[in-house]
Amino acid sequence: MSVLVYLALYAGAAVFVAASLVRAWMYARAPLHLRWELYPVPHEDPAKVKHGGSYFEDKDWWTHKRAYNLAGELGVMVPEMLFLKALHEFNRKLWYRSFPFHFGLYLLIGACGLLLLAALLGLFAPALMAGALGMAFHWLYTVVGVAGVALALVGAVGLLHRRLTDEDLKTYTTAGDIFNLLFFIVSFGVLCAGFLLRGPGAPGVLAMVQGLLTFNRTIEVPGLLAVGIVLCALLAAYIPLTHMSHFVGKYFTYHDVRWNDQVNLRGSKIEAKLVEYLTYKPTWSAPHVTADGKRTWADVATTNPWEGAKK
Q1: H/E element holding 7?
Q2: What domains are there in the chain, each with its CATH number?
C-alpha cells in the first residue's frame, strides 16, 4: 500500500508542476492582449499613484528612464492573492465562501512545506529535532494543516451550496463546476476520515513524509488514509489541467492586461509583434466584420464595418 501512495504522490506532484509550467508557457507566448490602461498602475511612482497619474504626465517622458515600483505592486498583489481583496469589496456574499476555501488551500500548502522541512531536518539532523524544535514543528504543521483542511472543506461546501441555490449563479454553473467542488469535498473528507480513524499503531504524518522521501516500503499506511492521500494526489494533478489553473493566469491578467503600460516605440518588440499580428487571417461569425479566414487583420482593420454590413 505504501508504494502505491508514494507513486501517487510523486506522480501528482510531477503532473502539477509540469502542467502549471506548460500553462505559464502558453500564456507567456500568447499574442498581446488588449490592454486596459486604467490608472493608477501600482508599479508607477507613488506620488503619481496617489492622484491616479502616470509617467505620461512628465515632460519629454520618452527620454527618461522609468523607475519600477515593486513595493507598490506587491502592496496590491499580496492582499489580492491572500485575502481576495477585490472580491471582498465587490461581492461580499461570495467572498464569505471563496475566501475560506482559498485561504485553506494556502494553509495546506504551508503545512506541506513545514512537514517537508521537518522531515528533512529529522533525516539529516535528528538530534536537532529531538527537542523543543521538533515539538514546535509538530504543533505548527498540525495546527496549520488542520485549520487548512477545515477552512477548505467549509469553503468548498459553501461554494457548492451557492452554485446550487443562487438563481443568478445557476446560469453560469456547469457540470464541471459541480464536479470540481465535489472532488475537493470528497478528497479532503476521505483524507480527514482516514486520519481520524487510523489505528493507534499507524505511522504519524512526519514518519510518512520521511518514508516518502526515502521510499521506505516498510511503513504501513492504513487503507482509508491511503485512499484519501491518493485522491488528493489526483486532485493536485487535475487542478492545472482545468480552468482552476487561474492561479497561473492571474499573474498574466494583471501584468499583461491591467498593468501593462509599456510604450509601443519604433523598432520595439511590441511593434514587431503587432506587425506580425496584422498578417494573421482571423475568422469571425459576425458578417459585418468580414473576417472570413482569407483576409488579414490589416484588411479587416482598414475596412469600414458599415460597408461590410450592407453586403
Answers
A1: helix 2-29
A2: 2-258 (1.20.950), 278-310 (no CATH)
